[in-house]
Each structure stands twice: as structure tokens, then as C-alpha cells.
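re the bet — no i am not wrong, look at it urself. input seq straight from the record:
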Amino acid sequence: MLRIGVIGAGNRGKDIYANFILEKTDKAEVVAIAEPNPLKREEMIKKHSISSENIFEDWREFLAKDKFCDAIILATGDDMHFEPICEAMKKGYDILLEKPMSNKVDECIKIVEMAEKYKVKVMVCHVLRYTPFFSKLKELIESGIIGEVVDIQHNENIGNYHFAHSFVRGNWRNSDETSPLILQKSCHDLDILSWLLDGAACKKIASFGRLAHFKKENAPEGSADRCLDCKYLDSCIYSPKKIYYKNIGAWPTLVATDIQTEEGLEEALRNNKYGRCVYKCDNNVVDNMVTIIEFENGVNVTFNLSAFTDEVCRTIKIMGTKGEIRGNDLKNHIEVYEFGQGDTRYSNGKKTEIIPEILEGGHGGGDTGLMQDFIELCLGNKNDSRTNPRVSLESHIMAFAAETSRVTEKVIKMDEYIRTVKENI
């Protein structure tokens, strides 16, 4: 039985990864928790029957002890990854690390170097590599059915209410405190693009984006600072009534309050950050961003990241010399067009529709696949994973370079960027 400790009992650590261990596997158990929030800590203690000697308010207390379990799930905030993972690697723990690895590019590089130095097993939570949807896309590309890939159009449709919750009111609203949007939200997407292209590295990258809507000048006339006191409570697109009250016991309300009742939610919204007007927060991350990427294998990619979508999904179009692939991960639907085999007036492509396997769990089954792989890796049943730090580093550096491009208004040549970063470490 694999013995796992959890550092950080937020939505990912407590509700996703620890719950998987409790409910979906008999190969592992949670035996320790480090969490400053007493309600979250107590929930973990009760659910997992954690012994008193393995309960900590702070990760430092956890890692001050000699190694007493097999592996750690590190799910603290973006800016709180580096110190604990360094200590955990020195102690010899295997580690599941929530993405991004760090919100600083030099720390990401150091994490990779330390993992290789101490020879510990580290997996980064790039869950899209474990989804049946993206696995099927990779299989189709590798089959050669559309020939050589030339261009890709990829969209991350964040969803208007998701963006308001996470990136206007929530934990990732301010890049000075956490991470730029393209790193926090979309290192997933940059990683999956590289993976689909057989690990291709980025050659050049350019980005354009801004905070267009969620700012004070767009607040309705006479709106209140807090939503429950506002005359627009029932009519505002981003009203807590429309986002939180109908999701008690589920995301995103699980994040908005520790007490999952209407009374608990109302108390939280009157006092915490999730009850604030979306036009009067301390947010600064962009709400729309377009990135252009040239990979070293010659493939060009346009990546669109936007708050202003109805659905929360990823859509993709992969264009090759012999055909085209279109996909929507929310609908779990893929279309393949083979050129020269159709006979309609406006298309000469043969169309094949594919519904990938459905795997239970969040992120289109990616959370399930990730946890299964981590447990097997730690048990010694696998030699490596799809998401080791060396592999995941590519997407992180791309994200930092894209943000640099957006801010400086310059095209970034990746070899020069990486050389400069390493010179400054």
C-alpha cells in the first residue's frame, strides 16, 4: 500500500487527488496532511482517518520530520511550490506537483535539475496528456491519416463565469501575486501542443493580449462593491446567484466557501473575495490573449485564450498535407477529413466522426489517468511518466516567453531567451 502525504488541501489537493485515493483505488492511502486552514485540515483528518502525529498546519513542520511516507502531493499556491518541493526531493520523496511548477522561470529550471540530481520520481499535473480525447488526436496524427501537420489552430475557451470566478475574484486574479494567465491556465495547452507534435520545441513565439473588460470603468452605474448589496444582483451576468448558489457541494462553490450550505455561502460572499463586484477587484491578468508559435519542426500554431466564451472547453483544428482534424473536448467529438475522397459540392474530403473513450473524472478523464499513472510510478510498476519535469519544462518556458512578448511587444527567439534566462540563474 502506497502511503501518501498531502501538502495543500485546496480544491485540487483535497477534492480531486485525495478523493481519488479514497474512492477510486486500493493501492494507496492518504496518511498525512499539511494545511493551514483548520476546516479543510479537519475534513482531511476525518475523511482519511489521519493519525495525530501526521497532522501539520505548515509544510515546514511536515518536511522537518524524517521521511515517513512514500510520496507527496504538493498542491499549494503557485508561488509556494519551490521551497517545499526542494525539501521534499532532498528527503527522497516521490512527488506529484500541481502545475505550474513555479511562477518563476529560474525556479522551474532548478526543479528539473534537482529532480534529476536526487533521482526522485516527480510528475507535473499536465492532465491533458491523460485524456482519451487528446490521446486520440495524437494517435490520429501519428497514423499519418492527414499527412504532415502544417498548421494548428487551438482555442482555450475559459468560459465567462469560470474566468470571473478564478481570474477576477479568485486565487489567480493578480499576476504580481501568483502567475500570468498563460502560465497558470494554459501551460496545459502549450504542453499538449508540444506533445501532439512529438515533443517539438518552440523556435519563436509572439503574444498579444490585454485586460479588456473586468475593470472599474466598465462597472454599471451605481453598482456596489459587494454583490449581495448591489441593485444588479439579479441581472448581472456575473452575479453570485448565477455562479455559486446553484453549485453548492460542487465546483466552483467548493472553492468559494468552506461551509457548503446557503447560510455558509451567504456569510462567505458577504466577507470574502468571491462576493466582490467583478469590476472592482484587484485583478490585473489579461482576459484575452492570442499567441503565435513557430515550432522547430516547421509547424505553425495560433493559440487563442479567452474569457469571453459560453462553453468551458478546448477546440482544435489540425491541418495536414492530406487532411484535417477538428475537435471539441467538451463534446468529446472529433472529425477527420481526408482530402480527395469526398464528392460534395463544397468539399472533396471524406468525413469520419470519432467519439473517444469516456473516462470518468475531471478534465475529461485526465485527472483519473494522471492519478493512476502516479500511483503506478511510485509503486515501481513504471519507469517514467508522460509528465516528468524535464518534459513539462518546455511548456513553462514557452509561457514565460509568451508573457515577455506580450509585455515587450517583441517576437521572442527561444534559443536567445533560454540562454539569457540560464545566464541569470
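see?? The longest strand covers residues 149-157. told u. also The two ends are 40 Å apart (CA to CA). so pay up
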